[in-house]
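Re: the 283-residue chain
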Amino acid sequence: MSSTRVAIQGIATSFHDFAAKKYFGSNAVSVECSSFKAVCECLKNGNSDFGVMAIENSITGSILGNYTLLSSYHFKIIGEVFLHIQMNLMAHPGVELKDIEVIQSHPVAIRQCGEFLETFSEKIKILEKSDTASSAKQIMDEKLKNTAAIAGAEVARVYGLDILEKRIEDNKKNYTRFLILSNEPNVDKTNNKASLCFELGHQVGALSIVLNILKEHSINMTKIQSLPIVGKPYEYSFHVDVEWSDYNMYEKAINLVLRNVSTLTVLGEYQKGEFDNSFKNGD
């Protein structure tokens, strides 16, 4: 039986890799991609069975560009994973903190460690790279003695780096939410969460009507994100995550919402993820 192929942004030992393993199991094969768009292209072209995409972080907030990709590629969200993210500063063996002139990592990881990075003098150059793990791997591959990377502890172990500073994220309750993407929907009435996208007319109170429908049907809205609609200045689409305990009530609510919006897309229905620290990502 062939292994499940999962497109990830980054390389093995990256946080996307851990998210894929947490959801699909340790036998899942990660298909490494250089960008989130490359993840989408990989899944679209059939070079992977599923995709994993970070969508928000508890420190830095939403990754807005990924909402745009979700709308553009029309994948279905079939699940979600929360990872407890722990960041570490690592360097080539023998290198000390005083030797560091460059710190590199994925831009989201860099923002998660803003307070720590502010403590360095201006001589430290901050470089944004494609992902955390490859930032660290480059140090060993090129034997960089003046460069440090920000990544998970497992990355240091795999690539033979020394950890100079542990747990440098701004807040220790640091979680990233990853979406599991598929070309096919997950049709199951035991699902208890959905991601929706809708556009509204310009009527007064249009958004409040939708929110009241959700409330009246005991639907809990866990997130709302507005995004500008390209080609329609100062008009917005709304991405909403909702949870429920009664699927029939959710269906009734969706039917009513459909009557009160310009467009409605169900991006996916799935089982809500849990804040579970039992899955170790090497930190």
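The first helix runs from residue 15 to 24.
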